[in-house]
TrEMBL record:
GO molecular function annotations of the record: 4 iron, 4 sulfur cluster binding; electron transfer activity; metal ion binding
Name of the featured protein: High-potential iron-sulfur protein
Membrane-crossing residue ranges in chain numbering: none
Keyword line: 4Fe-4S, Electron transport, Iron, Iron-sulfur, Metal-binding, Transport
InterPro entries hit by this protein: High_potential_FeS_prot (IPR000170), HIPIP_sf (IPR036369)
Region of interest: Disordered: 36-57
Family, per entry: Belongs to the high-potential iron-sulfur protein (HiPIP) family.
Biased composition (Basic and acidic residues): 36-52
Keyword Ribonucleoprotein: no
Organism expressing this protein natively: Leptospira biflexa serovar Patoc (strain Patoc 1 / ATCC 23582 / Paris)
Function: Specific class of high-redox-potential 4Fe-4S ferredoxins. Functions in anaerobic electron transport in most purple and in some other photosynthetic bacteria and in at least one genus (Paracoccus) of halophilic, denitrifying bacteria.
Length: 125
């Protein structure tokens, strides 16, 4: 009897657990958010390589190929609403090579992503 009760309890808890997990797994549908889309990868232009985010200059400037990876504790100004369009593509130092990559006059060891950012960003005129 005791063993049967425990098994019953176990099954009930399992059902509750799976229901809870499926609710959290489907969170985006429940609260109406779009699931995160895969970012489209644009090939790096022939003969080029991306600037390493570990490059000392890149690190000093807080550079990331994806501006969303910015350390907002170090660079809180990047989180301000008026900064959302501050990406390499809109930077005065940037020269576009294709739809995903370009050259930066400051980080010259490779190419930078259109959607990158560093603290040397300045508005393209
Ligand atoms: S200077 Fe401009 S183009 Fe170069 S990495 Fe920084 S934001 Fe991007």
């Amino acid at each position: 009897m005791m063993e049967q009760f425990s098994r019953k309890q176990f099954v009930k808890r399992l059902v509750v657990l799976f229901t809870t997990l499926s609710l959290f797994g489907g969170e985006s549908e429940i609260i109406g958010k779009e699931p995160k889309k895969e970012e489209k990868l644009i090939p790096i232009p022939d003969g080029e390589k991306p600037v390493s985010e570990n490059d000392p200059t890149a690190q000093a400037l807080g550079f990331h190929h994806n501006a969303k990876d910015t350390d907002f504790i170090l660079f809180p100004e990047r989180k301000l609403p008026q900064s959302k369009n501050q990406v390499c593509l809109q930077c005065a130092q940037f020269t576009k090579l294709n739809d995903g990559w370009g050259k930066c006059t400051i980080l010259t060891s490779g190419v930078v992503s259109n959607m990158g950012w560093c603290s040397a960003w300045s508005k393209k005129s």
